[in-house]
What does this fold into?
Amino acid sequence: MEFTSCFPVWDVLTPSQQRRLSAAVQERNIPKGTVIHRGSLDCTGLLLVRSGQLRAYILSDEGREITIYRLIEMDACLFSASCVMRNVQFDVSVEAEKETRVWVIPSDLYQALSEESAAVANYTNALMSSRFSEVMWLMEQIMWKSFDRRLADFLLRESALEGTDTLSITHERIANHLGSAREVVTRMLRYFQDGGLVKLSRGCVELSDPKGLRTLCEG
Amino acid sequence: MEFTSCFPVWDVLTPSQQRRLSAAVQERNIPKGTVIHRGSLDCTGLLLVRSGQLRAYILSDEGREITIYRLIEMDACLFSASCVMRNVQFDVSVEAEKETRVWVIPSDLYQALSEESAAVANYTNALMSSRFSEVMWLMEQIMWKSFDRRLADFLLRESALEGTDTLSITHERIANHLGSAREVVTRMLRYFQDGGLVKLSRGCVELSDPKGLRTLCEG
It folds into this structure.
Protein backbone atom coordinates (compact mmCIF):
# COMPACT_ATOMS: atom_id res chain seq x y z
CA MET A 1 0.00 0.00 0.00
CA GLU A 2 1.52 3.27 -1.18
CA PHE A 3 0.82 6.73 0.18
CA THR A 4 0.22 7.98 -3.37
CA SER A 5 -2.67 5.60 -3.93
CA CYS A 6 -4.20 6.31 -0.52
CA PHE A 7 -4.11 10.10 -0.42
CA PRO A 8 -7.40 10.96 -2.16
CA VAL A 9 -6.26 14.12 -3.92
CA TRP A 10 -2.83 12.90 -5.03
CA ASP A 11 -3.82 12.73 -8.69
CA VAL A 12 -4.95 16.33 -8.91
CA LEU A 13 -1.68 17.72 -7.51
CA THR A 14 0.86 19.18 -9.92
CA PRO A 15 4.09 17.20 -10.44
CA SER A 16 5.94 19.77 -8.34
CA GLN A 17 3.39 19.52 -5.50
CA GLN A 18 3.64 15.73 -5.68
CA ARG A 19 7.43 15.94 -5.37
CA ARG A 20 7.25 18.21 -2.32
CA LEU A 21 4.68 15.98 -0.69
CA SER A 22 6.60 12.78 -1.42
CA ALA A 23 9.73 14.30 0.07
CA ALA A 24 7.96 15.44 3.24
CA VAL A 25 5.51 12.69 4.10
CA GLN A 26 6.67 10.35 6.85
CA GLU A 27 5.46 6.96 7.89
CA ARG A 28 5.17 6.43 11.62
CA ASN A 29 4.36 3.56 13.85
CA ILE A 30 2.27 4.37 16.92
CA PRO A 31 2.21 1.83 19.73
CA LYS A 32 -1.19 1.06 21.21
CA GLY A 33 -2.08 3.45 24.02
CA THR A 34 0.12 6.32 22.82
CA VAL A 35 -1.39 9.78 22.95
CA ILE A 36 -0.17 11.13 19.63
CA HIS A 37 -1.72 14.57 19.80
CA ARG A 38 -2.73 16.75 22.74
CA GLY A 39 -4.92 19.67 21.79
CA SER A 40 -3.07 22.85 20.99
CA LEU A 41 0.10 21.64 22.69
CA ASP A 42 1.50 20.23 19.50
CA CYS A 43 0.97 20.45 15.78
CA THR A 44 1.59 17.00 14.48
CA GLY A 45 0.28 17.45 10.95
CA LEU A 46 -2.37 15.73 8.88
CA LEU A 47 -2.45 12.02 9.70
CA LEU A 48 -3.60 9.43 7.22
CA VAL A 49 -4.27 6.09 8.88
CA ARG A 50 -2.64 3.21 7.04
CA SER A 51 -3.70 0.57 9.54
CA GLY A 52 -4.90 0.40 13.13
CA GLN A 53 -7.28 2.68 14.96
CA LEU A 54 -7.19 6.16 16.49
CA ARG A 55 -9.59 7.77 18.91
CA ALA A 56 -10.20 11.52 18.97
CA TYR A 57 -11.57 12.86 22.25
CA ILE A 58 -11.96 15.97 24.31
CA LEU A 59 -10.95 16.43 27.94
CA SER A 60 -12.65 18.45 30.64
CA ASP A 61 -10.71 20.54 33.15
CA GLU A 62 -11.37 17.79 35.64
CA GLY A 63 -9.89 15.13 33.38
CA ARG A 64 -13.14 13.62 32.16
CA GLU A 65 -13.12 12.42 28.57
CA ILE A 66 -15.59 11.95 25.78
CA THR A 67 -14.83 10.25 22.48
CA ILE A 68 -15.89 12.38 19.54
CA TYR A 69 -14.90 10.04 16.72
CA ARG A 70 -12.74 7.06 15.74
CA LEU A 71 -10.41 6.85 12.77
CA ILE A 72 -9.67 3.60 11.01
CA GLU A 73 -7.83 2.56 7.85
CA MET A 74 -7.83 5.28 5.19
CA ASP A 75 -9.35 7.89 7.50
CA ALA A 76 -7.58 11.20 7.84
CA CYS A 77 -7.10 13.04 11.09
CA LEU A 78 -7.52 16.73 10.47
CA PHE A 79 -7.39 18.25 13.92
CA SER A 80 -3.87 17.06 14.54
CA ALA A 81 -3.06 19.83 12.03
CA SER A 82 -5.44 22.32 13.61
CA CYS A 83 -2.65 24.79 14.39
CA VAL A 84 -2.60 25.76 10.72
CA MET A 85 -6.36 25.95 10.40
CA ARG A 86 -8.01 29.29 10.77
CA ASN A 87 -10.62 29.64 13.50
CA VAL A 88 -10.25 26.23 15.10
CA GLN A 89 -10.65 27.12 18.74
CA PHE A 90 -10.99 23.82 20.47
CA ASP A 91 -8.61 21.12 21.58
CA VAL A 92 -8.88 17.56 20.43
CA SER A 93 -6.62 14.81 21.75
CA VAL A 94 -5.82 11.73 19.71
CA GLU A 95 -4.63 8.37 20.98
CA ALA A 96 -3.90 5.03 19.33
CA GLU A 97 -6.44 2.42 20.41
CA LYS A 98 -4.57 -0.25 18.52
CA GLU A 99 -1.08 -0.53 17.10
CA THR A 100 -1.38 2.04 14.31
CA ARG A 101 0.62 3.02 11.23
CA VAL A 102 0.07 6.50 9.87
CA TRP A 103 1.43 8.74 7.19
CA VAL A 104 2.15 12.20 8.53
CA ILE A 105 1.91 15.23 6.25
CA PRO A 106 3.66 18.09 8.06
CA SER A 107 1.29 20.93 8.97
CA ASP A 108 3.14 23.70 7.14
CA LEU A 109 3.28 21.74 3.89
CA TYR A 110 -0.39 20.82 4.16
CA GLN A 111 -1.24 24.45 4.68
CA ALA A 112 0.84 25.51 1.68
CA LEU A 113 -0.86 22.92 -0.53
CA SER A 114 -4.31 24.06 0.67
CA GLU A 115 -3.51 27.59 -0.33
CA GLU A 116 -2.28 26.60 -3.77
CA SER A 117 -4.84 23.97 -4.64
CA ALA A 118 -8.63 24.29 -4.53
CA ALA A 119 -8.80 20.48 -4.63
CA VAL A 120 -6.76 20.15 -1.43
CA ALA A 121 -8.79 22.88 0.26
CA ASN A 122 -12.01 21.12 -0.77
CA TYR A 123 -10.62 17.85 0.55
CA THR A 124 -10.08 19.59 3.90
CA ASN A 125 -13.68 20.79 3.68
CA ALA A 126 -14.99 17.32 3.07
CA LEU A 127 -12.97 15.98 6.02
CA MET A 128 -14.16 18.72 8.30
CA SER A 129 -17.78 18.18 7.23
CA SER A 130 -17.48 14.49 8.09
CA ARG A 131 -16.10 15.20 11.54
CA PHE A 132 -18.63 17.96 12.06
CA SER A 133 -21.41 15.51 11.18
CA GLU A 134 -20.09 13.03 13.73
CA VAL A 135 -19.97 15.68 16.42
CA MET A 136 -23.51 16.84 15.62
CA TRP A 137 -24.70 13.25 15.78
CA LEU A 138 -23.02 12.94 19.15
CA MET A 139 -24.57 16.15 20.41
CA GLU A 140 -28.02 15.00 19.42
CA GLN A 141 -27.37 11.75 21.27
CA ILE A 142 -26.26 13.58 24.39
CA MET A 143 -29.14 16.03 24.29
CA TRP A 144 -31.96 13.78 23.38
CA LYS A 145 -31.11 10.19 24.13
CA SER A 146 -31.23 8.67 27.56
CA PHE A 147 -28.05 7.08 28.84
CA ASP A 148 -29.30 3.49 28.48
CA ARG A 149 -29.86 4.05 24.75
CA ARG A 150 -26.47 5.70 24.32
CA LEU A 151 -24.77 2.81 26.09
CA ALA A 152 -26.63 0.22 24.01
CA ASP A 153 -25.67 2.10 20.86
CA PHE A 154 -22.03 2.27 21.97
CA LEU A 155 -21.87 -1.49 22.64
CA LEU A 156 -23.35 -2.29 19.23
CA ARG A 157 -20.97 0.03 17.38
CA GLU A 158 -18.01 -1.27 19.32
CA SER A 159 -19.03 -4.82 18.50
CA ALA A 160 -19.31 -3.95 14.78
CA LEU A 161 -15.92 -2.20 14.85
CA GLU A 162 -14.21 -5.14 16.57
CA GLY A 163 -16.10 -7.83 14.66
CA THR A 164 -17.04 -9.69 17.85
CA ASP A 165 -19.84 -9.90 20.40
CA THR A 166 -17.35 -10.21 23.26
CA LEU A 167 -15.76 -6.87 24.01
CA SER A 168 -12.56 -6.63 26.05
CA ILE A 169 -13.22 -3.27 27.63
CA THR A 170 -13.37 -1.92 31.17
CA HIS A 171 -16.28 0.07 32.59
CA GLU A 172 -13.85 2.95 33.14
CA ARG A 173 -12.97 2.92 29.45
CA ILE A 174 -16.62 2.92 28.40
CA ALA A 175 -17.22 5.86 30.73
CA ASN A 176 -14.39 7.75 29.03
CA HIS A 177 -15.92 7.14 25.63
CA LEU A 178 -19.33 8.35 26.71
CA GLY A 179 -18.28 11.23 28.91
CA SER A 180 -19.79 9.54 31.93
CA ALA A 181 -18.61 8.18 35.29
CA ARG A 182 -17.52 4.58 35.87
CA GLU A 183 -20.20 3.99 38.51
CA VAL A 184 -22.94 5.10 36.13
CA VAL A 185 -21.71 2.69 33.46
CA THR A 186 -21.42 -0.19 35.94
CA ARG A 187 -24.93 0.40 37.22
CA MET A 188 -26.42 0.47 33.72
CA LEU A 189 -24.46 -2.60 32.58
CA ARG A 190 -25.78 -4.54 35.59
CA TYR A 191 -29.27 -3.43 34.69
CA PHE A 192 -28.63 -4.67 31.13
CA GLN A 193 -27.34 -7.96 32.56
CA ASP A 194 -30.49 -8.38 34.65
CA GLY A 195 -32.49 -7.99 31.45
CA GLY A 196 -30.37 -10.63 29.67
CA LEU A 197 -28.90 -8.11 27.24
CA VAL A 198 -25.26 -8.58 28.24
CA LYS A 199 -23.10 -10.93 30.29
CA LEU A 200 -20.40 -9.31 32.43
CA SER A 201 -17.07 -10.70 33.51
CA ARG A 202 -13.77 -9.11 34.54
CA GLY A 203 -12.70 -6.63 31.81
CA CYS A 204 -15.27 -8.10 29.45
CA VAL A 205 -18.75 -7.30 28.20
CA GLU A 206 -20.46 -9.97 26.16
CA LEU A 207 -23.44 -8.92 24.04
CA SER A 208 -25.76 -11.85 24.70
CA ASP A 209 -28.79 -10.22 23.04
CA PRO A 210 -27.68 -7.81 20.29
CA LYS A 211 -31.22 -7.71 18.92
CA GLY A 212 -32.56 -6.60 22.29
CA LEU A 213 -29.89 -3.91 22.48
CA ARG A 214 -30.87 -2.71 19.03
CA THR A 215 -34.52 -2.50 20.03
CA LEU A 216 -33.60 -0.53 23.14
CA CYS A 217 -31.37 1.74 21.11
CA GLU A 218 -34.01 2.56 18.52
CA GLY A 219 -36.49 2.87 21.39
CA MET B 1 -22.83 49.01 2.30
CA GLU B 2 -22.01 47.05 -0.82
CA PHE B 3 -21.85 43.29 -1.17
CA THR B 4 -18.43 43.58 -2.82
CA SER B 5 -16.90 45.22 0.22
CA CYS B 6 -18.51 42.76 2.64
CA PHE B 7 -17.74 39.44 0.98
CA PRO B 8 -14.29 38.67 2.41
CA VAL B 9 -12.83 36.96 -0.64
CA TRP B 10 -14.21 39.31 -3.28
CA ASP B 11 -10.81 40.81 -4.04
CA VAL B 12 -9.15 37.51 -4.84
CA LEU B 13 -11.78 36.47 -7.38
CA THR B 14 -11.01 36.83 -11.07
CA PRO B 15 -12.93 39.54 -12.99
CA SER B 16 -15.03 36.82 -14.61
CA GLN B 17 -15.87 35.23 -11.24
CA GLN B 18 -16.75 38.66 -9.87
CA ARG B 19 -19.12 39.23 -12.80
CA ARG B 20 -20.87 35.88 -12.29
CA LEU B 21 -21.20 36.52 -8.59
CA SER B 22 -22.50 40.06 -9.02
CA ALA B 23 -25.10 38.83 -11.47
CA ALA B 24 -26.29 36.04 -9.18
CA VAL B 25 -26.21 37.51 -5.69
CA GLN B 26 -29.58 38.62 -4.35
CA GLU B 27 -30.50 40.83 -1.48
CA ARG B 28 -33.37 39.60 0.63
CA ASN B 29 -35.36 40.94 3.51
CA ILE B 30 -36.35 38.41 6.14
CA PRO B 31 -39.13 39.38 8.55
CA LYS B 32 -38.52 38.61 12.21
CA GLY B 33 -39.65 35.09 13.10
CA THR B 34 -39.29 33.65 9.61
CA VAL B 35 -37.70 30.22 9.35
CA ILE B 36 -35.49 30.77 6.34
CA HIS B 37 -33.93 27.34 6.15
CA ARG B 38 -35.14 23.93 7.30
CA GLY B 39 -32.46 21.26 7.33
CA SER B 40 -32.12 19.29 4.14
CA LEU B 41 -35.56 20.37 2.93
CA ASP B 42 -34.19 23.31 1.04
CA CYS B 43 -30.93 24.62 -0.30
CA THR B 44 -31.07 28.32 0.15
CA GLY B 45 -27.46 29.15 -0.59
CA LEU B 46 -24.71 30.92 1.30
CA LEU B 47 -26.19 33.77 3.33
CA LEU B 48 -24.19 36.83 4.26
CA VAL B 49 -25.90 38.86 6.97
CA ARG B 50 -26.08 42.55 6.11
CA SER B 51 -28.05 43.50 9.20
CA GLY B 52 -30.22 41.81 11.82
CA GLN B 53 -29.74 38.47 13.52
CA LEU B 54 -30.17 34.82 12.61
CA ARG B 55 -30.30 31.79 14.86
CA ALA B 56 -29.12 28.35 13.75
CA TYR B 57 -30.58 25.45 15.69
CA ILE B 58 -31.25 21.75 15.57
CA LEU B 59 -34.56 20.03 16.16
CA SER B 60 -35.23 16.70 17.82
CA ASP B 61 -37.82 14.25 16.49
CA GLU B 62 -40.05 15.40 19.33
CA GLY B 63 -39.74 19.04 18.30
CA ARG B 64 -37.27 20.12 20.98
CA GLU B 65 -34.75 22.73 19.90
CA ILE B 66 -31.27 23.78 20.81
CA THR B 67 -29.51 26.87 19.48
CA ILE B 68 -26.10 26.03 18.08
CA TYR B 69 -25.01 29.51 17.08
CA ARG B 70 -26.16 33.04 16.23
CA LEU B 71 -25.24 35.06 13.19
CA ILE B 72 -25.06 38.83 13.22
CA GLU B 73 -23.90 41.54 10.83
CA MET B 74 -21.15 40.33 8.48
CA ASP B 75 -21.47 36.70 9.57
CA ALA B 76 -21.98 34.09 6.89
CA CYS B 77 -24.37 31.19 7.15
CA LEU B 78 -22.76 28.15 5.61
CA PHE B 79 -25.18 25.36 6.38
CA SER B 80 -27.97 26.95 4.41
CA ALA B 81 -25.82 25.82 1.46
CA SER B 82 -25.11 22.40 2.94
CA CYS B 83 -26.75 20.57 0.02
CA VAL B 84 -23.67 21.34 -2.06
CA MET B 85 -21.22 20.43 0.68
CA ARG B 86 -19.78 16.98 0.69
CA ASN B 87 -20.33 14.88 3.80
CA VAL B 88 -22.59 17.24 5.69
CA GLN B 89 -25.02 14.78 7.24
CA PHE B 90 -26.94 16.84 9.70
CA ASP B 91 -29.81 19.25 9.50
CA VAL B 92 -29.61 22.79 10.74
CA SER B 93 -32.58 25.14 10.74
CA VAL B 94 -32.17 28.89 10.55
CA GLU B 95 -34.63 31.54 11.64
CA ALA B 96 -34.54 35.32 11.77
CA GLU B 97 -34.55 36.53 15.38
CA LYS B 98 -34.77 40.12 14.23
CA GLU B 99 -35.73 41.79 11.00
CA THR B 100 -32.77 40.71 8.87
CA ARG B 101 -31.26 41.65 5.52
CA VAL B 102 -29.07 39.10 3.82
CA TRP B 103 -27.23 38.64 0.59
CA VAL B 104 -27.86 35.21 -0.88
CA ILE B 105 -25.23 33.50 -3.01
CA PRO B 106 -26.96 30.64 -4.82
CA SER B 107 -25.64 27.22 -3.80
CA ASP B 108 -24.62 26.04 -7.25
CA LEU B 109 -22.61 29.18 -7.96
CA TYR B 110 -20.94 29.00 -4.56
CA GLN B 111 -19.99 25.42 -5.24
CA ALA B 112 -18.59 26.29 -8.66
CA LEU B 113 -16.49 29.11 -7.17
CA SER B 114 -15.19 26.78 -4.43
CA GLU B 115 -14.04 24.32 -7.03
CA GLU B 116 -12.27 26.97 -9.08
CA SER B 117 -10.75 29.03 -6.33
CA ALA B 118 -8.59 27.83 -3.44
CA ALA B 119 -9.30 31.15 -1.71
CA VAL B 120 -13.06 30.53 -1.74
CA ALA B 121 -12.56 26.93 -0.58
CA ASN B 122 -10.34 28.14 2.26
CA TYR B 123 -12.94 30.75 3.17
CA THR B 124 -15.45 27.91 3.47
CA ASN B 125 -12.94 26.11 5.67
CA ALA B 126 -12.53 29.09 7.94
CA LEU B 127 -16.31 29.45 8.24
CA MET B 128 -16.77 25.79 9.00
CA SER B 129 -13.99 25.87 11.60
CA SER B 130 -15.70 28.78 13.34
CA ARG B 131 -19.03 26.98 13.48
CA PHE B 132 -17.32 23.77 14.49
CA SER B 133 -15.63 25.61 17.36
CA GLU B 134 -18.97 26.99 18.53
CA VAL B 135 -20.52 23.54 18.48
CA MET B 136 -17.58 22.05 20.39
CA TRP B 137 -17.88 24.82 22.97
CA LEU B 138 -21.56 24.01 23.28
CA MET B 139 -20.90 20.33 23.64
CA GLU B 140 -18.40 20.94 26.42
CA GLN B 141 -20.99 23.10 28.14
CA ILE B 142 -23.65 20.44 27.87
CA MET B 143 -21.34 17.66 29.00
CA TRP B 144 -19.55 19.36 31.78
CA LYS B 145 -21.48 22.34 33.01
CA SER B 146 -24.46 22.16 35.28
CA PHE B 147 -27.67 23.74 34.04
CA ASP B 148 -27.51 26.72 36.41
CA ARG B 149 -24.14 27.71 34.96
CA ARG B 150 -25.34 27.27 31.39
CA LEU B 151 -28.39 29.41 32.10
CA ALA B 152 -26.30 32.14 33.76
CA ASP B 153 -23.95 32.10 30.80
CA PHE B 154 -26.85 32.34 28.35
CA LEU B 155 -28.37 35.34 30.15
CA LEU B 156 -25.03 37.16 30.15
CA ARG B 157 -24.40 36.51 26.47
CA GLU B 158 -27.92 37.51 25.57
CA SER B 159 -27.54 40.70 27.54
CA ALA B 160 -24.25 41.49 25.73
CA LEU B 161 -25.85 40.73 22.35
CA GLU B 162 -28.86 42.95 23.04
CA GLY B 163 -26.92 45.67 24.85
CA THR B 164 -29.32 45.71 27.81
CA ASP B 165 -29.78 44.11 31.22
CA THR B 166 -33.51 43.74 30.67
CA LEU B 167 -34.23 40.89 28.30
CA SER B 168 -37.59 40.53 26.59
CA ILE B 169 -37.67 36.79 26.36
CA THR B 170 -40.04 34.03 27.46
CA HIS B 171 -39.02 30.99 29.49
CA GLU B 172 -40.16 28.83 26.58
CA ARG B 173 -37.79 30.67 24.28
CA ILE B 174 -34.86 30.27 26.68
CA ALA B 175 -35.65 26.56 26.90
CA ASN B 176 -35.49 26.30 23.10
CA HIS B 177 -32.09 27.96 23.08
CA LEU B 178 -30.69 25.63 25.71
CA GLY B 179 -32.34 22.41 24.62
CA SER B 180 -34.25 22.22 27.86
CA ALA B 181 -37.87 22.23 29.00
CA ARG B 182 -39.80 25.35 29.97
CA GLU B 183 -40.47 24.10 33.50
CA VAL B 184 -36.78 23.52 34.12
CA VAL B 185 -35.96 27.06 33.01
CA THR B 186 -38.74 28.56 35.12
CA ARG B 187 -37.59 26.66 38.19
CA MET B 188 -33.99 27.77 37.78
CA LEU B 189 -34.94 31.39 37.07
CA ARG B 190 -37.01 31.46 40.27
CA TYR B 191 -34.03 30.07 42.12
CA PHE B 192 -31.90 32.85 40.59
CA GLN B 193 -34.55 35.37 41.64
CA ASP B 194 -34.49 34.10 45.22
CA GLY B 195 -30.74 34.67 45.21
CA GLY B 196 -31.17 38.24 43.90
CA LEU B 197 -29.51 37.46 40.57
CA VAL B 198 -32.50 38.29 38.37
CA LYS B 199 -35.89 39.95 38.60
CA LEU B 200 -38.74 38.26 36.73
CA SER B 201 -41.82 39.78 35.19
CA ARG B 202 -44.14 38.74 32.39
CA GLY B 203 -42.04 37.99 29.27
CA CYS B 204 -39.06 39.70 30.86
CA VAL B 205 -35.88 38.73 32.69
CA GLU B 206 -33.94 41.52 34.28
CA LEU B 207 -30.33 40.82 35.23
CA SER B 208 -30.22 42.53 38.62
CA ASP B 209 -26.78 41.13 39.54
CA PRO B 210 -24.70 40.48 36.40
CA LYS B 211 -21.56 40.16 38.53
CA GLY B 212 -23.15 37.42 40.60
CA LEU B 213 -24.23 35.63 37.41
CA ARG B 214 -20.67 35.85 36.12
CA THR B 215 -19.30 34.38 39.34
CA LEU B 216 -21.81 31.53 39.15
CA CYS B 217 -20.98 30.97 35.53
CA GLU B 218 -17.22 30.74 36.12
CA GLY B 219 -18.01 28.56 39.12
